[in-house]
Design goal:
The chain has 271 residues and is of the alpha/beta class. The protein has 10 helices and 9 strands. It is globular, with a radius of gyration of 19 Å. The chain starts with 5 loop residues before the first helix and ends with a strand.
Length: 271
């Protein structure tokens, strides 16, 4: 019997909450990613780890009328939400697929561009996945990724992790930190066979009204996996203690949410 995939289970679990307004850095990052990519009408784009479809929607609008987007995700519940968002947007040039990002069911050279927003770091072998992504790009095709820097969500995340550790939870695994340094990103892409690597950093942060909004982010994001490691009877005291220590960080503007983001561009070499 195949062991359950913890990443799939995590995102199935948060799918219904993923589009809440406190998580608006995801659609903001998607819009900026597509601006960086600058796709042309008629382009064929593969969006990996599409989630609820923010990048796919922005890309689909940009490649109309003749271009199309293939959007994949491991989580069927995230794809359900993406389908609803596509229906609301009135877009018909996006196809959704439940698919492993490291084993793509597409022909070599099928796409002009490949996008992945905050998804690559969840894959166990990032280099192997990138080689698979290079395979499905046409020669000269473009790759555009986003990832968080080490500064993202600090100091809120540091307080969250320290409090979890005090409650006996192992907090060593923050997968997004595997893709947080520009130099490491460049080396990874080059060893996977990409060229013309360009990395820029942008701040997509904003002020939250207070600790309750941060708690909504924790429940709706990848941090939910760590929160679920808490014993049921420990969750109320954990929440009370964590929110109390965040109140000292509030200013007249609210609670600052740092969302420092890397935009990572590269190309498959022209053959």
């Amino acid at each position: 019997m195949t062991a359950p995939n913890p990443v799939k289970a995590l995102f199935d679990g948060v799918a219904e909450r993923y589009d809440n307004p406190h998580m608006r850095y995801f659609p903001a990052a998607a819009a900026r990613l597509v601006q960086h990519l600058a796709p042309r009408p008629g382009d064929r784009i593969l969006d990996v780890a599409t989630g609820t479809g923010h990048v796919a929607l922005a890309a689909a609008r940009a490649v109309q009328p003749d271009g199309c987007v293939q959007a994949i995700d491991l989580s069927p519940r995230m794809l359900d939400r993406a389908f609803i968002n596509l229906q609301r947007a009135g877009l018909s040039n996006v196809d959704l697929h439940e698919m492993d990002a490291a084993q793509l069911a597409f022909a070599g050279g099928a796409f002009d561009a490949l996008t992945c927003s905050f998804g690559l770091f969840f894959l166990p072998d990032m280099r192997t996945a990138l080689r698979e992504w290079r395979r499905v790009l046409r020669p000269g095709g473009r790759l555009l990724l986003t990832s968080f820097t080490h500064n993202a969500f600090m100091p809120l995340a540091a307080r969250f992790l320290d409090r979890l550790a005090a409650f006996g939870v192992d907090t060593h695994e923050e997968r997004w930190r595997r893709l947080a340094e520009p130099a490491e990103c460049e080396d990874l892409l080059q060893t996977a066979g990409f060229t013309d690597v360009q990395i820029t950093t942008e701040q997509l942060g904003f002020h939250l009204d207070g600790p309750e909004e941060w708690w909504a982010i924790v429940q709706s994001s990848g941090y939910r996996g760590l929160l679920d490691a808490l014993d049921e009877d420990a969750r109320t005291p954990f929440r009370e203690q964590h929110q109390a220590e965040l109140r000292v960080l509030e200013t007249d503007q609210g609670l600052w949410l740092n969302v420092e983001t890397l935009f990572i561009a590269a190309r498959r070499p022209a053959d």
